[in-house]
Design brief:
By secondary structure, the protein is α+β, with helices and mostly antiparallel strands. The protein contains 3 helices and 5 strands. The chain has a single domain, classed as Heat Shock Protein 90 (2-Layer Sandwich).
Length: 122
């Protein structure tokens, strides 16, 4: 099953995106849900901060686990960074890389889609 919702480019959309995703995962282990919601927060925040456009969150659940996509129409490329210890930001995709089973970035016209997958059991 796939559910999706589009959010405006404002910081209040980040917790709204988390709530939307959480509602789709009521049958999933709470520890897995926590990880998924942290990753959603990071990707939604990146869209608000860097893309400057609305963003869409899609959640797919099924026998193969959970897949979440966050898409926006902003220019620029989502790239894994290794910020220094004193840098206050730049760790969002590192978090996704560590918590997900797989992730990637798909260019779109315009914009990009960042996705991740996790098993629905710890």
């Amino acid at each position: 099953m796939i559910d999706e919702r589009t959010f405006p480019n404002e910081m209040t959309s980040v917790p709204a995106a988390r709530l939307f995703v959480a509602a789709q995962l009521d049958h999933v282990d709470p520890d897995v849900v926590q990880d998924v919601l942290l990753m959603v927060s990071e990707l939604a925040s990146n869209s608000v901060r860097h893309a400057g456009t609305r963003f869409t969150v899609a959640v797919e659940t099924g026998t193969r686990g959970i897949r979440v996509e966050v898409a926006d129409e902003g220019a620029g490329v989502a790239a894994l960074r290794t910020p220094g210890l004193l840098e206050p930001s730049g760790r969002g995709l590192l978090i996704v890389d560590k918590l997900s089973d797989d992730w990637g970035v798909q260019p779109m016209k315009p914009g990009k889609r960042v996705w991740f997958t996790v098993a629905d059991r710890p």
